[in-house]
Write a structure and sequence with these properties.
With about 350 residues, the chain is α/β, with parallel strands linked by helices. It is about 30% helix and about 20% strand. It has a 9-stranded mixed sheet with strand order 5-4-6-7-1-8-11-10-9, sandwiched between helices. A two-stranded antiparallel sheet has the order 2-3.
């Protein structure tokens, strides 16, 4: 959806200390064979810090940068991938309580690793639907340190790292303009992330651990054809977002995409841009780990704080999540980041 008056007025990325794969083996966090042959360099580990508390920290930092008072916020959206806290409880309302407060609606977004980019479209449409909705706070956080996720038995696609990110979406002003956001789905491939597991009883209720390589091995069907279908869907969405915005691939300065360990995977993601690795954020991401829904905003924050993008540049945010879900956003940088506070 093309937006005419939506801006990014605050951004934050809270990334805990990183542990290299060699250090992880030395510390006994994993076996050497678990990470052998991977191109990941390190992952961020939050220890026992709860994901919603990480989101609160990121949300507060984004609010400090923003020029909106708490009373301006019409909605809070919190994108999550893994466990946030107790069952039958709302992490989004916890984040709201400790950031903007108030009585605005608070929503948890479960679009997997595309959740933060998808939230831009949802929050943008929500703000555009009424003139008295000036701003939205969007957060995401995941801590993969728990026994139901085999963190260190990952893949080149996903070796999980912990992080939290936040954005303030404004109808008034900002350091970047939200140009367009598009989303699509491939529901016929939902089993890719299910791996043949039964729907009931749910795995967590019986202590079943998620081991990504095992799910891939359990897949039925031609995995090469599945990968091709995902690639086509990503490429079609990228071109749709560009076409609607009146832009060409050459107009995109950088692409903030999901973290991946493999150079070839990132080159595949960047095929619509001739696979130019330097256009993406591979070197940043392979030192972070795949954080869930925070990858793209963490990468954008990295590009902004490192002055790797400047006013006038267009940056694409590209996310693929379970489902399969795809979301793509284009932002135009208008100014350097303002100081917090």
């Amino acid at each position: 959806m093309i937006f005419d008056d939506l801006y990014l007025d605050g951004i934050a990325a809270c990334i805990p200390d990183r542990v290299t794969l060699d250090e992880a083996v030395e510390l006994g966090l994993c076996e050497a064979e678990d990470v052998a042959g991977m191109d990941w360099l390190s992952v961020a580990l939050a220890g026992d810090v709860a994901a919603p508390d990480m989101a609160v920290q990121a949300g507060r930092e984004a609010l400090e940068m923003s020029r909106h008072p708490a009373s301006d916020f019409a909605v809070l959206m919190h994108a999550t991938c893994t466990y946030q806290g107790p069952d039958i409880w709302s992490s989004s309302h916890y984040v709201q309580r400790h950031t903007i407060g108030g009585s605005a609606p608070s929503v948890e977004i479960r679009q997997g690793c595309a959740g933060m980019v998808a939230s831009l479209e949802l929050a943008g449409c929500f703000l555009a639907a009424a003139p008295d909705r000036p701003a939205a706070l969007i957060t995401s956080a995941d801590n993969w340190t728990h026994p139901l996720i085999a963190r260190w038995r990952g893949t080149q696609w996903a070796l999980f790292g912990d992080a939290a990110t936040a954005l303030v979406l404004s109808r008034r002003q900002g350091f970047a303009r939200l140009v367009n956001v598009c989303s699509s789905s491939l529901p016929e491939l939902e089993e890719i992330n299910r791996g043949g597991e039964p729907l009931h009883p749910a795995g967590p209720t019986i202590g079943h651990q998620v081991v990504l390589p095992d799910r891939i091995l359990a897949l039925q069907g031609d995995q090469r054809e599945m990968a091709k279908a995902i690639g086509r869907a990503e490429s079609e969405l990228i071109h749709r977002a560009l076409d609607e915005a009146g832009l060409k691939p050459r107009d995109i300065t950088r692409v903030a995409h999901q973290s991946a360990g493999s150079r070839s995977i990132v080159e595949h993601i960047l095929e619509p841009f001739d696979g130019e690795l330097a256009l993406g954020t591979w070197e940043f991401g392979r030192r972070l780990g795949h954080t869930g829904a925070s990858d793209q905003v963490a990468a954008l924050h990295h590009l902004l704080t490192g002055r790797e993008v400047r006013p006038g540049d267009h940056v694409m945010l590209l996310g693929t999540g379970v489902g399969m879900a795809f979301s793509c956003a284009i932002v135009q940088i208008l100014d350097d980041l303002p100081a917090r506070g």
